[in-house]
Structure formats: structure tokens, C-alpha cells
Amino acid sequence: MRIALVGTRGVPARYGGFETCVEEVGRRLVERGHEVVVYCRGDAEVGDSYLGMRLVHLPALRKRSLETLSHSALSVLHLVSRRRPDAVVVFNAANSPFLPVLRARRVPVATHVDGLEWRRGKWGPTGRRYYRAAEALAVRWSDALIADAQGIADYYRDEFDAGTDLIAYGAPTIDPERLDRLGELDLTPRGYHLVVARFEPENHLDLVVEGYVRSDARLPLVVVGSAPYSDAYTERVTSLADDRVRLLGGIWDQELLDQLYAGSLTYLHGHSVGGTNPSLLRAIGAQAPVSAFDVVFNREVLGEAGHYFGTPEDVRALVTKAEADPQAERERGVASGERAARYDWDDVTAAYEQLCARLAASGPLRHRASGRRRAATSQADRVGAER
């Protein structure tokens, strides 16, 4: 099959879950004999091929509200002007206004709807309304919807009476004993707590830092991440930190980042709206003991292997408990690794391959869900609710 992947920053994966999915699934589809075209934003220094995938580099407006949409619009126009693919996967429900262009060319398309984007704190009222409308358009104009977590699948079922293909991300397998590079950051194995997240309100970095600072923790809190559009939130997080908090910014060296996960005494995961989160999967793949913000998506991944928090006081108590009993944390880390075995990239790729084959065989659907919401009191107001 000829499969196009649209709507992400592209590969190599340097940013988030979509890009990791495109890289891991795309290269495996190539290995299975398919032609894979990936639309990428900007940087043509990578060349026109990566791990067997053909890359198309197109520009984007560097403004938060327009970056994704401007690039996706150019990508769809480029796509329909070339040889028709057998199937297209569009990542991010925000791109749903462009689906009719694909439909007009009779290109079958699946939309990966991601998480509850309208809940993200970076969006104002207009942005939230747009994302709510885009969800409905994705339901109306997609030939299939992809959910990466059961909570997201439940949301689309309850909200729109729409079925989804449930395809989670994969978890990498990371050697928990390979920790030889921690010294580059003046860290020692099991000698720090870790957070890896973009500086955005729904990732609750401020809550984690505040709770940690309230504790009598002896080990530092290492914070990895940056904020491309959130200067005010970064200032808030920084203002809460004391001299035990080490703000490292973004780390793009994947080997070093993997060792940070594997060597942590605890990994504190504050994400709350994005479905199955790749950073969380990477943490359990490294057998890191995880304490996570208490939402359905995180409980789905961690189960009983996780500890959960919702307030700074919860974080204070969990950090204190971890330092009092490091052996118990190591046992939790082993349990995390057992959970990671459920998330295998080969299985994920097989699911995408089957979905694309189904789309290619059936073509665009004549009858789709309406896209109308089912109830005045929306499931959206409940799923993923804090606490």
C-alpha cells in the first residue's frame, strides 16, 4: 500500500507522541513492504528519506494558533495533487476542516483524534470552541477514528455515538541498569526525582514543584522540558522552585534521557488530558517507579503499579514516602516494566496496517456518524476529570 501520514512535525521524532508514533509505525510499515510518505514541517536538512520513509518538507506559520493548521493545509493540497495514496492517516482532530478535500478526491482517511485538546490551558475561549467543533467534524468526515486510550474511545462513543479503532502507542524497552551517563549531569542512580514534560498547565508542573518544595526531600527534583509558547507559566514554575529543583530545559539526546528515566528514584507524571502519553510509556519501559496525576488515562497505563496524586500535599507525601523506602520504589519499578509489555510497537504497527488495508479495500464511507453531540450534559465534562 501507499500510505501518507499527515499533521505532525514529522521525523526524526524530536517533539511528542505523534512524531514518535509516525517514526515507529512508519519505519515498520516500510519494513513490511509498504510505501510510506511523511509530511514534515520545515527542516529539509534531514533529506528526502528517513528509515525508508519518503519525506515531504513544507513550511508552517510559526504562531501557536496557526502552525499546525497552516502546515496541514499545505500538506493536504500537496497530497491531492500527486498520485492518490491507498490510505491517509491524519494526526490531530484540529486538522478535520481539511478532510473534505481528501473526501472530494475519494482518498480514504483515518483521523487520530489524540486527547481532549480543548482542555489544554494554553487555549483561550476561541481555541477551545474550535477544538470542540473540530472533534465533531472529525467524526463527520473521517472514514475511521483512532483513539490511543480507552478513555478517549469512551468519550467518542458517549459524546458522538461514534466507534473508534483503539490503538495505543508502544513503550520502548530501556535497559534499567545502563546508567553510565548520569554523571554528565552530576546525578547518581536512584539519587533524584524526575519530571519530563512541556511547560503547560494541564501537565501540572507547578503542582509537582510546589508539592516537592513543601517536602523535606534530600534528593533533587530534576525537571526536563521547555515551553515554546508559555512564558508566563514557566515563570510560575520557576518562582515556586527552591535550590533543590534543577530546571534542565529540553534534552534531545535520547540515550541520556532514557538513562534519566531509568535512574530516577521516582518519576512524577502530571499529564492529564492527552490520552496514553509517550513520556509515561517511556518511563515504564525504563522500569521507573511512577507517581502520576490521578486521571483515567494514567490509571489505564499504570494500574496498581502506580501511585497517584491530585494536590501538592499528595506530592509532598509521595516524595517523602519514596525517600523513606527506596527498595519499595524499586519493586514498583519492576511492576512498571511488567505493564510496559502490554505496549508493543510491532503490535501497534500491525493494527495500523490492518486499518489502512481496510480503508484501501472499502474506500471512503458513504455513511458516517453525524458528528452531533448526544447530550446537553456532556461526557466531556466528566472524562479525564481531576480526581
TrEMBL record:
Keywords from the UniProt entry: Glycosyltransferase, Transferase
Keyword Chaperone assigned: no
Domain Glycosyltransferase subfamily 4-like N-terminal: 16-158
Alphabetized SUPFAM superfamilies for the sequence: UDP-Glycosyltransferase/glycogen phosphorylase
Pfam families, per database record: Glyco_trans_4_4
The keyword tRNA processing is assigned to this record: no
Stretch list, region Disordered: 365-387
Bias (Basic residues): 365-375
InterPro entries associated with the record: Glyco_trans_4-like_N, Glycosyltransferase_grp1
UniProt-recorded name of the protein: DUF1972 domain-containing protein
Protein's organism: Angustibacter luteus
